[in-house]
Amino acid sequence: MKQQDSIPDKIRKARVLKGLSQENVADMLGISTTAYGDIERGKTELSIKRAQDLSKVLDIPVLWGEKELAVSPQIDTLLEENKHLKSENLRLEIELKFWKEKFEQQLYLEAYRILQQKQREPIGF
Asked: Where is the HTH cro/C1-type domain (predicted)?
C-alpha cells in the first residue's frame, strides 16, 4: 500500500472493497450519511470508539499507537482487480445482450419459416 494514503483514504478504500455505500456504513454505525461522508473526507477526527466501530464494520484493524489505520497491504491490488472485474462484467453483459438478440432473431426466422412452410403445404385432392 502506498505510504501517502491518509486514514480517510484507507477507510474509503476498505468500504469500496467491501462493496458498501457510504449510506450502508453510516447505517451500520448509527450515524447520518453526511457524518460518515465527513469521516471519509477527513473533516471529522475519529474518536477511539468510532475507529473501533469502523474496524468492526469494515474488517480493518486499528493501530492507535502509530496513529494509523492499518489496512491490508493487498488493498490496492484488490481494488485494481475489482475494477478489472467490473469492466469484464460489463463486457460480458454486452456480449450476453448481443447473443440474446441474435437468438431471438433466429427464433423469429425459424417461426416464420415454419409458418411459410405450413402455408405452402399441398392440399391433397
From this structure: 11-65
